[in-house]
Design a protein that fits this description.
This protein is mostly helical. The protein is built from 16 helices and no strands. The chain folds into 2 domains: 2-266, no CATH class; 279-315, no CATH class. The chain has helices spanning 2-5, 9-24, 29-49, 60-76, 81-103, 108-128, 130-133, 158-179, 182-192, 194-199, 204-230, 240-253, 258-278, 283-297, 299-302, 304-310. Helix 3 (29-49) packs parallel to helix 8 (158-179).
Length: 315
């Protein structure tokens, strides 16, 4: 396990390239920020779907909770980004603790419906509590203070991009440490066969509740980053398309592999940006066609050169 968990040279190179990208590609800093946020959101879903086998169509509930918590904290209490990020993470984690009860019961179909219902309930609450959340107009007037008291959020988006990338890296390291630990091994055992895992003495409910809460906290962090770097939070953060898009990201990148969410977010955002620039009306057609080809051809064939490179040229 220690050998598998060891960082590979290409990983250091990839993260270094990511961290310098807002400087090298300054004109695309805002897009880099979006990619980092979507990647963190996808990473949180992969923890429960790829490693624990928990299906969810309402992961946007935690994303939206983190976004509104951070935005409200900045507007009503204090504008410090790091404290607001911590508030967003803590709020989403508390929601995850409460919601984890639902994922321990029923079948995959019931979990899909319950998680979807949770996101819809929160969206309707945010709509009704317009005196607090702004309702359909969204929560406006969110002004963030300088990061670490020194770095102002600029219109070009460089500070925002670096902020999101660093948070993504820190939470990625945490997730990596988790999946390559004995706890991660038990989660994969639960994913493969829950009854057998219970039979050999694994505390299945506690493990699932723990990873679900951690995934909720990470999704809340992604939502908080979106609200802080955009200065806005709206009902859109709770909508079904958020959960559907992050599922598509994992379809593209693959589940059960931490870099799958990151690679999927990169491909998804680039395709969405550049195809929509070329054909604003039909960009979803080309994205759908890409997904069909991905399923028919197989991800392994499409990414074989990358797999060969990541293994150092070994077959």
């Amino acid at each position: 396990m220690n050998r598998i968990a060891a960082w590979k040279p290409w990983e250091y190179a990839a993260w270094l390239a990511a961290l310098v990208s807002p400087w090298v590609l300054a004109e695309h800093a805002l897009m880099i920020n979006e990619i980092a946020i979507v990647a963190l959101f996808a990473l949180s879903l992969d923890l429960i779907l790829g490693y624990a086998g928990i299906v969810s169509l309402g992961h946007a509930a935690f994303f939206g909770m983190g976004a509104y918590a951070a935005a409200l904290f900045a507007k009503l209490v204090m504008p410090d980004p790091l404290v607001g990020l911590a508030v967003g993470i803590a709020t989403a984690a508390l929601l995850g603790v409460a919601a984890s009860v639902t994922v321990l019961r029923g079948t995959d179909l019931t979990r899909l419906m319950v998680t979807l219902g949770l996101a819809l309930i929160l969206m309707e609450l945010a709509n009704k509590l317009d005196w607090l959340t702004g309702g359909t107009d969204g929560l406006q007037g969110v002004v963030m203070g300088p990061l670490l008291g020194r770095f102002e959020f600029d219109l070009q988006g460089q500070v925002a991009a670096w902020y999101s990338l660093v948070v993504l890296l820190l939470l990625f390291v945490l997730a990596r440490r988790l999946v390559y630990s004995p706890l991660g091994a038990t989660l994969m055992a639960i994913r493969d066969n829950r009854l057998r895992a219970m039979a050999i003495g694994i505390a299945v409910p506690q493990r699932l509740a723990l990873v679900y809460t951690l995934a909720a906290a990470m999704a809340g962090a992604a939502g908080a980053l979106l609200a802080q770097t955009s200065g806005f939070a709206s009902l859109d953060v709770f909508e079904f398309h958020r959960s559907a898009d992050v599922m598509l990201v994992l379809v593209i990148g693959g589940t059960g592999w931490l870099y799958g969410g990151l690679a999927g977010a990169l491909v998804f955002e680039i395709m969405q940006k550049f195809i929509s620039d070329i054909t604003p009306q039909y960009w979803t057609f080309w994205l759908g066609l890409f997904l069909v080809v991905l399923v028919l051809v197989g991800r392994a064939r499409l990414v074989r050169p990358w797999t060969w490179f990541s293994r150092g040229g070994k077959a």
